[in-house]
């Protein structure tokens, strides 16, 4: 009986730690979008998108995603970008 109570209490503690705060998440999303608009907005305007339109916002999101992809590519744990590189292009140590 005591073990069952301890198990239930432990699971409640774990589940309460997973609970999120919607107001905090909304504030973070708003702050992140303001950052994206400040950084990528001028570039999208130079590309010909009118400010504060849906196409302009799509351009901002696309530019942000591309910059994230570039960062992830250079931070890859694999030397040549793929774990299968050695399988198809074996290194020869002369």
Describe this structure in words.
The protein is mainly α. The protein has a domain at 25-74. It contains 4 helices and no strands. Helix 2 crosses helix 3 (54-74). The chain starts with a helix and ends in a 6-residue tail after the last helix. The model has no long low-confidence stretch (mean pLDDT 79).
Provide a compact summary of the structure.
71% of the residues lie in helices and 0% in strands. The protein has helices spanning 2-18, 22-46, 54-74, 85-88.
Features:
94 residues; mainly alpha; 4 helices; 0% strand; elongated
Number of helices: 4
Derived from helix and strand composition plus strand pairing, the structural class reads mainly alpha
Mean pLDDT: 79
Number of strands: 0
Helix and strand sequence:
HHHH
Rg calc: 23 Å
Described by the principal axes of the CA atoms, the overall outline is: elongated
Major sheet: size, sense and barrel closure?
none
């Amino acid at each position: 009986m005591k073990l069952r109570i301890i198990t239930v209490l432990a699971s409640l503690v774990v589940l309460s730690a997973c609970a999120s705060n919607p107001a905090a998440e909304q504030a973070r999303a708003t702050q992140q979008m303001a950052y994206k608009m400040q950084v990528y907005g001028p570039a999208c305007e130079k590309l010909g998108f009118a400010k504060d339109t849906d196409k302009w916002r799509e351009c901002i999101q696309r530019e942000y995603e591309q910059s994230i992809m570039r960062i992830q590519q250079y931070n890859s744990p694999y030397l040549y970008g793929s774990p299968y590189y050695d399988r198809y292009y074996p290194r020869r140590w002369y």
